[in-house]
């Protein structure tokens, strides 16, 4: 059941101020001042929602701060009080001016208590059924909704009681409808009452103002005039519904939706916010992160230098609008940065080295070991910092970079030194330690030069200490450089596939051949590239599809070994297109399988490109390493597959929409009439009686419909009918449609048509062929020439040549 949504969230005054019904006057005042400060228009410039909230809070405080108004509010309830206020609001009216009452409630307060809420403005109602409907209060029920269900929309079943007019008494409440004169008002329907100096006339409380009462109560409805029916109805709660929204089932039943808070998301209008924690490395270097969105997990791009509490925006990923489901808000992710509490020795060394080069820092950093001299300082910007650490360190990347490290033994530095016969080489002999030592030497030499100008004893003592430290550092540096040279010479003599030598020229002499393409090779012409792709698709389509349907890595490796010609960029392009085709066919299982095969080929091609190798030389290593890869790498691999599937779904949806638009345009073009108008659009634009006559092929009704129109309107619609092909002049008497059924418009003969259209008393009379008909016709044109000029001759053509009118 489609329901009306009431977004005017009128709340109980006590709930609006956040106080209990038994709250004291001081508590109410305190709550009001707190909320007024928060929602005051001056504190929220341009915020219409805050201004509306402030008005509601002020209205609630005005009622609850006044003892008499509060008492009436408690007696009548929220809805009844609001209805009463809207009917008599304004505070003054006929009672304004000096000595007037503050508002209408003060005037009618005693009447309300004396006559059960009845006053002189009460309308007369004819029957108990009508009186019951007029006095019936809407019933609002509550329903709890999960947060994500409020995003997607939800359907609930609700039991309701509906009232219908009693069939036994037709709503009168009297058996067989027999009524008698009211014994209290004697049929007048009103009674007079005195209130001090005022004389008030009000509706009779016994007959309800009708002047009559039931002689005998109806046995079916017990005099109520209504019968009740219990039923369960399905209520559709729209997507994007807010907490507190009332969804109306009918005029007397509504559902107030209470959306449960989410532990992940917070809603702010159509926007939502959530929080995500990133590592220190991600904050500094940038990266990406999978976070939970309203429609599933999404990839969040992290910029280098991300700061705590930054808000990253996911456009169009927020709540849908109830009024316009195509419109959506945004999803903002608030970034928290996790600072590691426990560091390994290596991590601490790197952080301390970062601290050495850190600029614009306030305060000091706790170092694991103090500098060799208190006078050591960071080199100035104009000094060259040879061997600056960190330049040769490869940044932590995604799945591919980690996989490449695994393939190339990049982390196996100790093993390389054992091959070189340098078992004693440790972290202190690595390139970054050598660079740090070189910086320290430069700092100490600079400080020594500054102190040599001072002849004091303290300066000379410092110079002595610096000179000893310099000698020690230079000896260590010389030993380090010698061992590095020996290691490089060993690697040149014993080449192997690792990250330090795979991309250098000397690796061409290793057991793995060099990449066949030159780095300076000019890119292919785009047209030639397209020709190559088409040729690949034509020659290898069946093989590529067979590869796309393979379900495990071992089978894929074997198939590529048997068909190495597939290992090229065109295979990845083909698989992406094939994946989109599968998504259009809504074969989800096949889509995921093809996406996995596509990502596999993409990683093999990227690995070959990075190592400057032919893909046929890399794919076996890829499969071998993947089989023993870390679970973390495989998780990232699966995320890549999911990300590709999301992109494929978007492209498939776009393709379907394009196809639908094209089909609709082709259908419209096929049915366009001789004058270029769409017959369906023209038929829908006709007056209702003419449209019905066309649908029923009723000639008399059609002519009668045109007779009701003014000459200009009749002329306008008739021309559109002809131009669209709905009415074809000169149609055959027995023209048939594609199904063989006669499409004659009632088979009206020419003479009948002319008699109707030329009748002197008809408003649709068309100028005849003689002056008498022109004078008598009071219709579309005063003379045949004017009609011909105005309608490009179509009317005369119809009159002169058509014997039957064919409805297409």
UniProtKB/TrEMBL annotation:
GO cellular component: cytoplasm
Keyword Zinc-finger set for record: yes
Molecular function, one GO term: unfolded protein binding
Subcellular location per the Swiss-Prot or TrEMBL entry: Cytoplasm
Domain of life (superkingdom): Eukaryota
Domain CR-type, chain residue ranges per copy: 153-230
Chain intervals annotated as zinc finger (CR-type): 153-230
Pfam families noted in UniProt: CDC37_C, CDC37_M, DnaJ, DnaJ_C, DnaJ_CXXCXGXG
The protein's name: Uncharacterized protein
Organism encoding this protein: Monosiga brevicollis
């Amino acid at each position: 059941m489609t329901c009306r949504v009431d977004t005017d969230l009128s709340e109980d005054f006590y709930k609006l101020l956040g106080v209990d019904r038994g709250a004291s006057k001081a508590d109410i005042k305190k709550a009001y001042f707190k909320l007024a400060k928060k929602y005051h228009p001056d504190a929220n410039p341009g915020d219409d929602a805050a201004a509306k909230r402030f008005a509601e809070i002020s209205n609630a405080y005005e009622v609850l701060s006044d003892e008499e108004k509060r008492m009436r509010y408690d007696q009548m309830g929220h809805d009844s009080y609001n209805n009463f206020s809207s009917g008599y609001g304004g505070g003054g009216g006929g009672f304004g001016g000096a000595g007037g009452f503050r508002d209408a409630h003060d005037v009618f307060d005693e009447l309300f208590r004396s006559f059960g809420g009845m006053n002189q403005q009460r309308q007369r109602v004819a029957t108990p059924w009508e009186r019951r409907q007029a006095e019936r209060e809407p019933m609002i029920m509550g329903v709890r909704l999960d947060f994500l269900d409020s995003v997607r929309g939800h359907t609930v079943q609700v039991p309701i009681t509906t009232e219908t007019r009693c069939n036994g008494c037709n709503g009168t409440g009297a058996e067989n409808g027999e009524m008698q004169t009211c014994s209290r008002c004697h049929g007048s329907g009103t009674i007079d009452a005195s209130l001090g100096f005022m004389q008030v006339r009000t509706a009779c409380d016994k007959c309800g103002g009708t002047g009559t009462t039931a002689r005998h109560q109806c046995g079916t409805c017990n005099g109520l005039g209504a019968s009740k029916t219990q039923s369960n109805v399905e209520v559709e709660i729209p997507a994007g519904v807010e907490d507190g929204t009332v969804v109306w089932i009918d005029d007397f039943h509504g559902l107030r939706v209470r959306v449960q808070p989410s532990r992940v998301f917070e809603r702010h209008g159509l926007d939502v916010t959530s929080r995500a924690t990133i590592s220190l490395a991600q904050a500094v270097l940038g990266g990406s992160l999978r976070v939970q969105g309203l429609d599933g997990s999404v990839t969040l791009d992290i910029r280098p230098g991300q700061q705590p509490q930054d808000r990253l925006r996911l456009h169009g990923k927020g709540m849908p609008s109830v009024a316009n489901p195509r419109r959506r808000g945004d999803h903002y992710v608030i970034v928290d940065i996790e600072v590691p509490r426990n560091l390994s020795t290596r991590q601490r060394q790197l952080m301390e080295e970062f601290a050495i080069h850190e600029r614009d820092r306030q305060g000091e950093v706790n170092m694991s070991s103090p500098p060799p001299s208190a006078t050591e300082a960071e080199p100035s910007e104009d000094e060259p910092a040879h061997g600056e650490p960190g330049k040769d360190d490869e940044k932590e990347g995604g799945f591919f970079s980690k996989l490449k490290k695994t393939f190339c033994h990049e982390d196996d530095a100790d093993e390389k030194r054992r091959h070189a016969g340098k078992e004693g080489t440790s972290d202190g002999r690595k390139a970054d330690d050598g660079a740090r030592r070189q910086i320290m030497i430069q700092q100490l030499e600079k400080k020594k030069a500054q102190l040599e100008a001072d002849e004091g004893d303290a300066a000379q003592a410092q110079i002595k200490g610096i000179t000893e430290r310099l000698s020690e550092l230079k000896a260590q540096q010389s030993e380090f450089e010698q061992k590095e040279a020996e290691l490089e010479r060993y690697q040149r003599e014993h080449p192997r596939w690792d990250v330090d030598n795979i991309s250098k020229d000397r690796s061409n002499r290793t057991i793995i051949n060099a990449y066949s393409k030159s780095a300076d090779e000019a890119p292919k012409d785009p047209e030639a590239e397209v020709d190559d792709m088409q040729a690949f698709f034509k020659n290898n389509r069946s093989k590529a599809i067979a590869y796309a349907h393979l379900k495990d890595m071992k089978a894929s490796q074997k198939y590529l070994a048997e068909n190495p010609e597939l290992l090229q960029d065109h295979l990845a392009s083909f698989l992406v297109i094939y994946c989109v085709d599968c998504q259009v066919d809504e074969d989800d299982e096949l889509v995921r399988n093809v996406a996995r095969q596509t990502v596999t080929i993409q990683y093999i091609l990227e690995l070959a490109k990075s190592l400057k190798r032919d893909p046929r030389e890399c794919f076996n290593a890829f499969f071998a390493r993947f089989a023993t890869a870390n679970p973390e790498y495989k998780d990232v691999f699966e995320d890549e597959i999911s990300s590709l599937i999301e992109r494929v779904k978007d492209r498939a949806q776009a393709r379907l929409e394009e196809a639908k638009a094209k089909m609709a345009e082709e259908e419209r073009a096929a049915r366009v009439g001789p004058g270029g108008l769409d017959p369906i659009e023209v038929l829908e634009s006709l007056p209702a009686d003419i449209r019905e006559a066309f649908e029923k092929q009723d000639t008399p009704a059609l002519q009668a419909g045109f007779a009701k129109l003014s000459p200009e309107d009749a002329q306008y619609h008739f021309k559109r009918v002809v131009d669209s092909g709905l009415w074809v002049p000169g149609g055959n008497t027995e023209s048939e449609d594609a199904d063989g059924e006669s499409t004659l418009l009632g088979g009206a003969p020419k003479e009948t048509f002319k008699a109707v259209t030329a009748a002197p008393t008809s408003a649709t009379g068309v100028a005849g062929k003689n002056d008498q008909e022109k004078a008598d016709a009071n219709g579309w044109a005063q003379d045949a020439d004017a009609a011909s000029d105005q309608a490009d001759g179509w009317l005369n053509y119809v009159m002169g040549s058509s014997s039957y009118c064919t409805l297409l």
